[in-house]
Amino acid sequence: MGRKFNNLLLEFARLHRFLMRVLREAVSPPYEFKEIVRQCYEIGWKSFPLIGLTGFIVGFVFTKQSRPSLEDFGATSWLPALISIAIVRALAPLVTALIASGKVGSQIGAELSSMNVTEQIDAMEVSGTNPFKFLVVSRIIATTIMIPILCFYIAGIGLFGGYLSIIGNDQLSLLSFFTQVFDKIGFVDIFAMTLRAVVFGFTIGFASCYVGYYSSKGTEGVGKAANSAVVASMFTVFIEELLIVQVLSLIS
Amino acid sequence: MSVAENKRSLIVGLFALIGLVILIAGILVLGTQQNKFSKNLIVKTYFHDVKGLKVGNNVWFSGVKVGIIKEIAFEDVENVRVVMSIQEKDSQFIRKDVVATLGSDGLIGNAIISLVGGTAANPEIQDGDVIKSGASGGMDQMIGLLQENGANLTVITQNFAKLSQQMVEGKGTIGALLTDDAIATNLKSSVVSLNSVMTDANKAVNNLVTLTGKLNNNQGLIHDLTTDTEVFASLRESAAQLQGVTQTANALMENLNKTSARLNDKDNALGVLTNDAEAANEIRQILKNLNTSTEKLDVNMEALQSNFLLRGYFKKKAKEAEKESKDAVSK
């Protein structure tokens, strides 16, 4: 019991050291721009089809499911407002983060742990490249940039999915739809969405890299790292979501 | 840098750019809708009760969104200060005497401020103006209406009281009617006269009924006149004949007229006879002469009777006359 608690504290200390190192290395030259762009391509562009489709389905289905409840009040004309609040305030960053955790998190975890297992990281260090900057920092920066970008796409696609669902039942022009959508949200909501996406992006990158970088040796370590990268990312995202909602409800 | 890497950078750049464009477009649309980028006027008003109005709610003028609520705060114990920002482009249609009322954009919709009224004579609203607030619709309005009704009812009952007082005192027509005995007597006699008139009228009507009944019977001249076509035809014939007769009579009268006119003239025998005095005298002379002539003739004739030549004849005649008279007696 005491040892477990001890291990937990050690783990936290290691996390803190890792975080400090990431922040320090991120701002200090040389910058690995080429590697960052490559990671952006892998993380952002490669996961866009999956995440975009998910966003569309979420918007479409959410609208479809909300309709009966609003119909009871004869308030189906409020669907755009409902969708806008739901997607911009909650769903867009969260859905992006969750899908990205699965797609990107597992990828990063598996990549880094397999490099660790095959001792490529050590080889890099020998060849004079800073493996931490090249592998970890570039990935974390890439997720921190790309998750918000994906989140904006999701918001747009999700709203469009909602619109398609609405016009299945009602007559509504796209202009009228977006007027109503933006009628119910404020700058705070857009700011909150961006902030969450940035935080989630950083979290996914950080958790996945940490798990991959410190994976146990052996081939089973790779699978384990991939798995725990996803679990850790998702779990942390939800915890952060909870905290951010609390803070934002104080602001707005 | 390899071609593949170049392509990769391009895709990433484009991807990120579009994502940011979505964000910026969202911000711009939102800002435009919430008047963040347009020039705005700040206008204040005070309410006793804002009924759940919130910052960011819409301000409507004639049902069109012209601005939003910027700030809601207590001014003093009785008043809540509501600061509105109104788009400058719409402000030229809003006048200084506009009244802010609380409303809602639907049955269960958001609270809004609705600007009502404003006359063209007043200058347009300007930055920093304080506008009046008015009673809102709904319950308040209904209660206001009820109060008005109550006041009206009071006035009406007061008037009725005055009216009934005057009636009791015998003022005015109705009062006189109710209280003056002379009028009552007159009215009574009028009614009696009316009664007899009505009786007569009744009789007249009865007679009329009889008459019309007779008319409807298949008897009488009027019935024949109104129903029998033969009678009418013969009547028409008679009338035609009558016309002929009158025409003849007319001609006769004309002739008579002519004749009598001639009598008046002197250029014919009758005219001379009737009109000429000289002729009359001559005629008179002639008659005188005729008279003397006949006298002399008479004497001559008597002398002739005594003449022998003729005496026998007269004797014979006397005898015959005597004989005849005898026969008459014997018979």
Give keywords:
heterodimer; A: mainly alpha; 8 helices; elongated; B: 331 residues; alpha/beta; seven-stranded mixed barrel; 7 strands; Phospholipid/cholesterol/gamma-HCH transport system permease protein (chain A)
Notes on the structure:
- The complex is a heterodimer of chains A (252) and B (331).
- Chain A is mainly alpha-helical and 252 residues long.
- Helices cover 88% and strands 0% of the residues of chain A.
- Chain A has one domain.
- Chain A has eight helices and no strands.
- In chain A, helix 3 (79-117) packs antiparallel against helix 8.
- With 331 residues, chain B is of the alpha/beta class.
- Among the domains of chain B are: 40-137; 180-275.
- Chain B has ten helices and seven strands.
- In chain B, a hairpin with a 2-residue loop joins strand 2 (58-61) and strand 3 (64-74).
- Chain B is elongated, with a radius of gyration of 65 Å.
- Classes of the chains: A mainly alpha (252), B alpha/beta (331).
- The A-B interface holds A 34, 37-38, 40-41, 44-45, 48, 73, 75, 145-146, 148-150, 152-153, 155-156, 178-179, 182-183, 185-187, 190, 194 and B 1, 5, 8-9, 11-12, 15-16, 18-20, 22-23, 26-27, 29-31, 33-34, 36, 56, 108.
- Chain A: InterPro entries: Permease_MalE (IPR030802).
- Chain A: Keywords: Membrane, Transmembrane, Transmembrane helix.
Quick rundown:
Chain A has 8 helices and no strands. The model of chain A has no long low-confidence stretch (mean pLDDT 87).
Question: How many H/I helices of chain B?
Answer: 10
Fraction of residues in β-strands of chain A: under 5%
Tell me the radius of gyration of chain B: 65 Å
Shape of chain B: elongated
Query: What is the CA-based Rg of chain A, rounded?
Result: 21 Å
Helix percentage of chain A:
over 70%
Taking the alpha carbons of the first and last residues of chain B, their distance comes to: 200 Å
In which range does the helix fraction of chain B lie? 55-70%
Order of helices and strands of chain A: HHHHHHHH
Note the main sheet of chain B.
7 strands, mixed, barrel
* Largest binding interface between chains: A-B, 28 and 23 residues
Class from helix and strand fractions of chain B: alpha/beta
Mean pLDDT of chain A: 87
| Residue windows where pLDDT falls under 50 for at least 5 positions of chain A | none
